[in-house]
Write a structure and sequence with these properties.
Layout lengths: L9 H11 L6 H23 L12 E6 L4 E6 L6 H9 L5 H8 L23 E9 L6 E6 L5 E6 L5 E8 L14 H12 L6 E10 L7 E9 L16 H10 L9 E8 L3 E8 L16 E5 L2 E7 L11 E6 L15 H24 L1 H20 L6 H4 L4 E4 L5 E3 H7 L7 E5 L3 H5 L4 H6 L4 E4 L2 H10 L1 E2 L2 E5 L10 H8 L5 H10 L28 H9 L3
Parallel strand pairs: 1-7, 11-13, 16-17, 16-19
Antiparallel strand pairs: 1-2, 2-6, 3-4, 3-6, 4-5, 7-8, 9-10, 10-13, 11-12, 14-15, 14-17, 18-19
The structure holds adenosine-5'-diphosphate and magnesium ion (MG).
The site of magnesium ion (MG) has 6 residues, from helix 2.
């Protein structure tokens, strides 16, 4: 039987692809710059094994030039270039990637920096251009060729003149229509911003002719226009630098440049992992709460890079909710990207990275708690509530991660203490971890219920946050010590006689009965108490819910 190849309506296919795989038009520049970087990389790899070839760093760069008058945007590189066959194969066949082939051939060396793999990125240029003209001269060739296309209608290739090796891509930027404008892709500041956003860490210089105004030499008031060639990208990502070469200021600068926040981060975490999954990450614990942090509008997430190229602005899968305050980025070569590079194909690697990151954040917070208590206090003031929410969420399944990180105000220490600190100070005869809930520390201090516990010399944790008691219910017990509200019926410190006295008939039987009748639908029982010292009366509960919790539950919208 004869086996037939599928035919494709390539015109339709191209149109579909151009208009459906990308959600953002601006990424066309990322794609073309990535290709240029790959082209230079290829010369670099060739030079590693070819003695005749010298890789002189200074002669390799990419240049971006916008011409508003002619509505053209030109991206040229001094990379390896394309032969006539290359143009035909790589730009003429959709989904054919010369870069992927190169990577496979060179796997033994370190071709892993090559970005291209799908063979479609180039066509994204048609999202912003009517005509794309590629002029290229390949390494080792005498002649140059010009490839030109208006997109769906196919392409032409003709011989042409080009002095130097490399590729020049000219985009004829689309005219504006009634509801769409393409002018921004000819604006210097906008192009610069797009390059910074996606391609800041392309290894080779991306140059632009930047115009501006400056003071004339020798003058204090006269300005002059100038134009100078500038390198727009940072090239070496801070996360690929050696940690020992970096100062805290470098990280702070990065934090500010990346606009992670306007504050100064409390701490940075720099991870270079090369175990089961290879990735670099720089994470920050912010110094103050983002204004929208405790609102629905807040979006958690880390920037995700693949080989130094930005894939996602806010990858939320990388952070658990309880660490949603963490800012920063992750770069990995191991990600399985989908064709648009906007999403990930499989999340196995991502899950591994996320787990790894979670553990690193936890241990960073733990060492902060141990070694820099003041800084931890500052952190806790902003984000402690989120940690407590974390304990409560998902039926307490994160309590192991978080219970050592939470703190509560202590009646004894008059400051925030950890559960571990509390338990380690407990006298031998103390059975429970005692807490009292209320609106403020001052109010709790005056609660009659605290008297007996305090009298025993036991420490009491003050719960002033709505979430506190709910979180603690999820922890259930810490180091085998259960939690006990000071307002619960059985405090575990009453002597046998006390209990007996409370339960037995006594002289005031009639008074209590009378009170109970008056308060019939408000209280279950009125009885004598041995726990009071200076106050005449107090409430106590014997169920799971304390009075404070009931108050909160009642105030919640159903
Ligand atoms: P990918 O980069 O995923 O391979 P593209 O559609 O972006 O897919 O590019 C297709 C191919 O065209 C590349 O693999 C590469 O072989 C070739 N190519 C594109 N741009 C250039 C360039 N500036 N210099 C040399 N080759 C290029
Ligand atoms: Mg590409």
């Amino acid at each position: 039987m004869e086996k037939k190849q599928f035919q494709a309506e390539s015109k339709r296919l191209l149109e579909m692809m151009i208009n459906s795989i990308y959600t953002q038009r601006e990424i066309f520049l990322r794609e073309l710059l990535s290709n240029a970087s790959d082209a230079i990389d290829k010369i670099y790899y060739k030079a590693l094994t070819d003695e005749k070839l010298v890789f002189d760093k200074d002669s390799y760069f990419v240049k971006v030039v916008a011409d508003k008058e002619n509505r053209t945007l030109t991206i040229s590189d001094t990379g390896i270039g394309m032969t006539k066959e290359d143009l035909e194969n790589n730009l003429g066949i959709i989904a054919k990637s010369g870069s992927l082939a190169f990577k496979k051939e060179n796997e033994a060396k370190d071709g892993h920096d090559i970005i291209g793999q799908f063979g479609v990125g180039f066509y994204s240029a048609f999202m912003v251009a009517d005509v794309v003209t590629v002029t290229s001269k390949a390494l080792g060739e005498d002649g140059a060729y010009k490839w030109e296309s208006t997109g769906a209608d196919g392409y032409t290739i003709v011989p042409c003149e080009k002095d130097s090796i490399g590729t020049e891509i000219v985009l004829k930027i689309k005219e504006n229509s009634e509801d769409e404008s393409f002018d921004e892709y000819l604006e210097e500041y906008r192009l610069k911003a797009i390059i910074k956003k996606y391609s800041d860490f392309i290894k080779y210089p991306i140059k632009m002719d930047i115009t501006g105004k400056r003071l004339q030499e020798g003058s204090e008031s006269e300005f002059e226009d100038y134009q100078e060639e500038q390198i727009v990208n940072s090239m070496v990502p801070i996360w690929k630098k050696n940690k020992s070469e970096l100062t805290p200021e470098d990280y702070e600068k990065f934090y500010a440049e990346k606009r992670y926040g306007f504050d100064k981060p409390i701490k940075h975490i720099h991870i270079s992992a090369d175990g089961a999954v290879v990735y670099n990450a720089i994470l920050f614990i912010p110094g103050s709460i983002p204004f929208d942090y405790y609102t629905k509008e807040f979006e958690k997430g880390l920037e995700l890079y693949s080989n130094g190229v930005l894939i996602m602005d806010k990858c939320s899968d990388l952070l658990p909710d309880y660490f949603s305050f963490v800012k920063g980025m992750v770069d990995s070569e191991d990600l399985s990207l989908n064709i648009s590079r906007e999403l990930l194909q499989h999340d196995r690697q991502l899950k591994l990275i996320a787990k790894n990151i979670k553990n690193k954040i936890k241990s960073q917070l733990q060492s902060l708690l141990k070694d820099e208590r003041e800084t931890y206090d500052q952190f806790y003031k902003s984000f402690g509530r989120q940690l407590k929410f974390g304990i409560y969420s998902d039926y307490g399944s994160h309590k192991d991660v978080l219970q050592d990180l939470v703190m509560f105000y202590s009646s004894k220490e008059k400051k925030l203490v950890t559960l571990d600190e509390y338990v380690s100070r407990m006298p031998e005869d103390q059975k429970y971890i005692y807490y009292a809930s209320g609106e403020t520390n001052e109010r709790i201090e005056k609660l009659p219920q605290t008297e007996m516990v305090a009298d025993k010399g036991y420490e009491i944790l003050y719960f002033t946050d709505d979430i506190d008691e709910f979180a603690i219910k999820m922890i259930m017990q810490y180091k085998e010590k259960e939690f006990k509200s000071v307002s619960s019926g059985d405090l575990g410190i009453e002597s046998e006689e006390d209990n007996k006295a409370e339960n037995e008939e006594n002289d005031n039987k009639e008074l209590f009965e009378h009170m109970q009748n008056l308060l019939a639908d408000k209280v279950k029982k009125v009885k004598e108490s041995k726990r009071l010292r200076s106050h005449p009366v107090c409430f106590s509960t014997d169920g799971e819910l304390t009075i404070e919790m009931e108050k909160i539950l009642k105030s919640m919208p159903n």
